[in-house]
């Protein structure tokens, strides 16, 4: 992943079967080509209210309702990826934003009591793992966090899972070598500011407004993470986890430019039973309304072109998404 020259350089664009299923409300698909299109209630699980997922989710919901007035898209803020998979599993969400790494784990590696079947509508973008300490901190590497308290993201977030793996990769035992808290971003920012934690980890676009505020005072330093990548891939390798080395863009935060961190790809996923016509309709918006789906503050989020939208790794595409991509791009 490479930094974008402009935050509006996004998905490049080129130019279903009917189904009706219950999705909290009645979500119906129209395939006549002449009808009013899909309708009902569509529930979208995002992330913390002040973070990237929620901002993207609000934009997507607005585009869905603009293009399909009979669809009501309700955005739900959550702790993040793990919580969103649980909402899909329990039938309390229809669409969800998740890290590729978490979606892969949902297939069955002990993260959940039983494998959770999910389908992808697209690989949307890549964000950054941002492990920040105060600029006046003596800590300059992850291994240097030994004995220091950190927040690894809220319980239910994908960052929380990756954070423990990052500590392990650095030879540290979470909870033993490093006292670990799981705070929401706003709480973690307050704790870093007042010195009650040494560092915080978050996954998101850059710059994140909350971190920008911290960078202005007391100031931040970002720990390099890319050197730990070889120990994070697991038996399936890094590609399956959606992880890769990426430098912070110049100007994202004071002094962060060029620091080698980890890029994490993000998916829009759904329950397998989502109506094909609805999956088709939402997928088309990912391609055709791409420029309207970039949160204003996401300078460093790498939005991917249509060739990569379909690259969802070990998470299969929903048949409705396949239909949309074939129709648009052959």
From TrEMBL:
SUPFAM superfamilies assigned: Periplasmic binding protein-like II
Recorded superkingdom: Bacteria
Gene3D superfamilies recorded: Periplasmic binding protein-like II
InterPro entries: TAT_signal (IPR006311), TRAP_TAXI (IPR011852)
Pfam families reported for this sequence: NMT1_3
PANTHER family, per the entry: SLL1037 PROTEIN
UniProt-recorded name of the protein: C4-dicarboxylate ABC transporter substrate-binding protein
Origin organism lineage: Bacteria, Bacillati, Actinomycetota, Actinomycetes, Kitasatosporales
